[in-house]
Amino acid sequence: MTNHTQLANLGWQPFFQQQLCLSEWETTVPARVTERHRSCLQLATGQETFQIPIIPSLPDVTVGDWLLLDSDQRVQRRLDRKTLFKRRAAGPEAREQLIAANVDVALVVCALQGDFNLNRIERYLSLCHEAGAEPVVVLSKADQFQQSEDFRSQVQGLDPLLSVQCLDTREPEQVQALLPWCGAGTTVVMLGSSGAGKSTLTNTLMNAQCQRTGSVRAGDARGRHTTTRRSLLEMPGGALVLDTPGMRELQLTDCAQGVASTFEDIEALAAQCRFPDCQHQQEPGCAVTGAVAAGTLDARRLANYQKLVREQAHNTATLAQRRAQDRQLTRKYRDVQQVRNRQRYGD
Ligand SMILES: Nc1nc2c(ncn2[C@@H]2O[C@H](COP(=O)(O)OP(=O)(O)OP(=O)(O)O)[C@@H](O)[C@H]2O)c(=O)[nH]1
Ligand SMILES: [Zn+2]
């Protein structure tokens, strides 16, 4: 029998509960993926923490996912995800890489010094909107800047409903401003460039004591202890911080919806262009370039929108090609297998 409070402490919510039928509730145990290693997953049920090997029959799983296990700790199924962060994997092969599932809030950390860049913030916002997580922009190193309010209003200008906070991430009192997004059972993730202040913010939020939810230190082949690469940290207030390594080479993949909701203003203007396939370059009757000329739309914002749309179209195409190649390869294997079987067993 599963204890509700223990599950809630791991981020269990009605959204997941609703997916279980009565018999599953009696015969299975929900477990959250707290870490993913090359050959095993680390799971936590609230009562215990253990590792299971990654085997081919396992569904595609990432950190933050919920699995249903039978009494022998075998995976029955993966529950539907509330949200999902993914990116194009690094390298020439345009594969999709799952980063984190079931994240409720994304703290987008950007330092005011050196790191401040509206284009990059829009990129992160698109990623959050695509994933389905609520973004909160944290402008860090506010202590080093006199005009932090200027920057805050520039970010607010991207979206009047966006939450934007300027902070010194080292100061517990200032960090309290983020507590409304860190309620019990909420899963929080930090996004942002290297050096922006993500670790500092995590530490301050955790009161400097990292309590790793269900963590065990796994020994590697040489018997040394390896530090965990991804894990779920429990905040004193009951929120969970999913501590993922920096999202390097951030690319948008299959992210058209995220771009569209980040640039709702431009999409609304585009609907008024004379030509339905308007590229908003030099077409007559273009409402978008018209707004730039009238000074109601920032040319920077339009340029970034066009760049993200192009980038997302490019990535989706490469992924589609990749999937086609995979299908072709599968067909080829099947043909080879059939020939072999024919040779072995006759026709
Ligand atoms: N003055 C000031 N320094 C800060 C603030 N936030 C972070 N720092 C400093 O900036 C440096 C980088 O901060 P980190 O928290 O390590 O940055 P990070 O985003 O975790 O970087 P990666 O781990 O590389 O992704 C550290 O020396 C911090 O002490 C802030 O709000 N004010
Ligand atoms: Zn147009």
From TrEMBL:
It is an enzyme of class 3 (hydrolase). Its EC number is 3.6.1.-. Keywords: Cytoplasm, GTP-binding, Hydrolase, Metal-binding, Nucleotide-binding, Ribosome biogenesis, RNA-binding, rRNA-binding, Zinc. GTP binds at residues 140-143, 192-200. Zn(2+) binds at residues 273, 278, 280, 286. Residues 101-248 form the EngC GTPase domain. Gene3D superfamilies: P-loop containing nucleotide triphosphate hydrolases (3.40.50.300), Probable gtpase engc, domain 3 (1.10.40.50). InterPro entries: G_CP_dom, P-loop_NTPase, Ribosome_biogen_GTPase_RsgA, RsgA_GTPase_dom. SUPFAM superfamilies: P-loop containing nucleoside triphosphate hydrolases. Binds 1 zinc ion per subunit. Residues 95-250 form the CP-type G domain. It comes from the Bacteria. Its cofactor is Zn(2+). It is found in: Cytoplasm. The keyword tRNA processing does not apply. Monomer. Associates with 30S ribosomal subunit, binds 16S rRNA. One of several proteins that assist in the late maturation steps of the functional core of the 30S ribosomal subunit. Helps release RbfA from mature subunits. May play a role in the assembly of ribosomal proteins into the subunit. Circularly permuted GTPase that catalyzes slow GTP hydrolysis, GTPase activity is stimulated by the 30S ribosomal subunit. This is Small ribosomal subunit biogenesis GTPase RsgA.
